[in-house]
Protein 1
Amino acid sequence: MTIEFDDNLITGNELIDSQHQELISRIKQFVDSCEDGGGKIKAIQMLDYLADYTNFHFSAEEKLQKDVGYPGLAEHQKKHEEFKNNLKELEAFLDEVEGPTDAFVEQVKKNVVDWLFNHIKAFDRSVAEFIFLTDNPDRL
């Protein structure tokens, strides 16, 4: 599985896209470390960083949505909570094993990578389109 920010993930909003690039870069480092046998302590540290950066990013996205009057904010917040719960489940999974196993890496790919890529392509792109159309009413 390729974990990289590419054109399919561009929303067109500079703030959102730059934060997604950082988040995806960190997720790639996390998965690479787990696959290379980086150990439990390193995996815990990287998962903690992901949780912190995710909270920062989601707060910024939600503030942006609130500021522009995005009508789908409540639904978007629910999706963000879903992702945060996925990270908590991964923390619990990691607590139960000696280190990041193949099963753990598969859960990361499913519950973090796949989830995030799908979220960006659907939810975040719709936010960016709403902002663009709001800022450019002549385009309607």
Protein 2
Amino acid sequence: MHEALPALALNSEALPREAMDETPSSPANPESSAASAGAGASDERLMLAFSKGSSDAFAELFARYKQPIYGFFRRRLAEPAHAEELTQETFLALLRAASHYEPRALFRTYLYSIGFKILRAHRRKTAFRATFFGKPNSVADPSQRDATEAGLWVRSAVAKLDTMDREILLLREFEQLSYAEIADLLHLSVNTVRSRLFRARTALRNLLEPFEQPSTKNVPHTMAQRGERR
């Protein structure tokens, strides 16, 4: 996806209003605070700096998360253009909400929660259009995206999973979120996440068993045997 979005943070209309009252020489200047933190600063520290007006902090967060957020949408939508559009919307929503940000959770969890809201709104809009205007559904089977037979089989199998189980599996295996982060995002208990993830992996393995390509048969086993990050 293209990287034009951070330029929005340089626009005085996009920045949090607090930044307009600060001067470059001020000790509390968020720009200098973010600069001193550098690229090694935590996501949460960068977001706090951005909430006080640092466009550099926003640019760093965008650089860190533009591909993960695009991948999040790409795995759930049939059209790459829609995935890119919703990625842009997610960061625009982050811009708008910056002045109200409070570090109550990991920034990553906060950002994915914004992505989920935007995805749900997109799905509702798509369903409405499909029902009343006969528009093609952009939440079509994701398996249509992969030209290889093995990839088609895996994506088709994932699409057959229970909706919540599939979401948990994607968040764990692709977004690589912890159990606690998934539980927070989906409003479930950690134990429920664990049990449903196990069920999803088992179901996926069973769905893939009839397919004899070694590269595909190993997918669920790799997932099941992977070391767990708490």
Protein 3
Amino acid sequence: MGAEFIGTLGLVLGGCGAAVLAADFGTGANGTSLGLGYVGVSLAFGLTVLTGAYALGHISGGHFNPAVTAGLVAGGRFPAAKAAAYVAVQVLGAIVGAVLVYLIAGTPDIDGSEAGAFAANGYGDLSPNGSGVGTAFITEVVMTAMFLIVIMGATARKAAPAMGGLAIGLMLTLIHLISIPVTNTSVNPARSTSQAIFAGGDYIPQLWLFWIAPILGAVIGAVIYRVLLGDEEDLAV
């Protein structure tokens, strides 16, 4: 449980911290951007999962995400009896990570009506490009489904064990490159919850989507892998 707490805390501190603290520093004297931009933020999220997977994956499995836990249960890779405790610890770790980002940022005033406020996820007026609820829902379902297919494939017994964390981290980077403009990228209900708490405003009533869509997508992706691609020897339960 401690590994899931630390890993999810690290994901929020690294990924959301990069978005809040370093995404945009304005421009330099020659007009070039001084911030990471959304490509840099995408890499920050991917790197937190990559490093967390190698550092902590052998302890807890390196989920760091309620949707991943739900997907692995659906895919037969994780016992359902442990899922609720994992999810609770992940949400707690994410909230502590958000508290640290808030303190490091100097306890800023946050405009809960602004798209992407405090790296929160949203749709409609809170979407970076104004995407509606339907587009946001489909995006989160599809991105999380693809994430689970990669996770299950990269961690299968017949896969190269040393490469699993790299594949998963790079996939999360790719997901962010695709979907930051749409929803600011969730695919992780714990990460969405922690940021919505601080962003407030309409981010709270929109939080339902960033629980239901990622978990649904994770289950779909895991079932697709298990039925079409997986081997029975990979089943854990």
